[in-house]
Amino acid sequence: MTQQDQHDDRYSRTPSERDLDVLSRQLGRPVRDVVEIGARCACGNPLVATTAPRLSNGIPFPTTYYLTHPVVTAAVSRLEAEGVMTEMSARLAADPDLGARYRAAHEAYLTARAAVGERAGTGPVPEIDGVSAGGMPTRVKCLHVLVGHALAAGPGVNPLGDEAIGRIAEWWTPERCSCEGAWDTTGQAPHADLSRHTRTQGLGPEELEAKRAARRGAAGHAAPAGPTEET
Ligand SMILES: [Zn+2]
């Protein structure tokens, strides 16, 4: 592998097996249906797992950008505990300009989710047409969703997500790596499942059959499904 390949690998949208391993460790459970890495730490580790709008078991999944980094999720939980969601919802109702920008974030979220679905090959998901997440477009119900969206989209798309990132600066900032000691790096990852994108890449027929057999074997243990909304 050339140095360029390594660089691309580390920062590409397509999850590597290492990314999936890290995600499972960050969450403490196997990840499923992760189709892209929505945002990465300065060091390259995942911050946000991007999930297709329809899970591989057929269930529609509106929460596209799932915040996975334990340091960030804990910091956002602190904000939530401080009552920031109520405060933001009140400002949304009182400030038409903020309301308009938040509605635009909702639209951007839906557009980005459709593009994710297209890239992942899940096609249209009419069940969740017009339904975003986190309380958008008129309320704030989950700051993790807004921060996940803001990190994936970049600054200037989700005003309240951007604001929440600014308000956790005491504990986490995008410029600084906070991965050291943030999750257990010893032993096996919690049964890292492979994403739709990588699980069959470059495998021969025998390896594919072995994987299918392993999946059949694991089915009885009913590991948790993909990410669920946190709050
Ligand atoms: Zn890092």
Write the layout of secondary structure elements.
Layout: H1 3-11, H2 17-27, E1 34-40, E2 46-51, E3 65-67, H3 70-81, H4 84-94, H5 96-120, H6 143-153, H7 159-167, H8 205-219
Antiparallel strand pairs: 1-2, 2-3
Helix pairs in contact: 4-5, 6-7
Provide an overview of this structure.
The chain has a domain at 17-174. Helix content is 45%, strand content 7%. The chain has 8 helices and 3 strands, in the order ααβββαααααα. It has helices at 3-11, 17-27, 70-81, 84-94, 96-120, 143-153, 159-167, 205-219, and strands spanning 34-40, 46-51, 65-67. The chain has a 3-stranded antiparallel beta sheet with strand order 1-2-3, sandwiched between helices. β1 and β2 (46-51) form a beta hairpin. The protein is globular, with a radius of gyration of 18 Å. The termini are far apart. The structure holds zinc ion (ZN). The site of zinc ion has 5 residues, from loops. Zinc ion (ZN) is lined by residues 41, 43, 45, 177, 179.
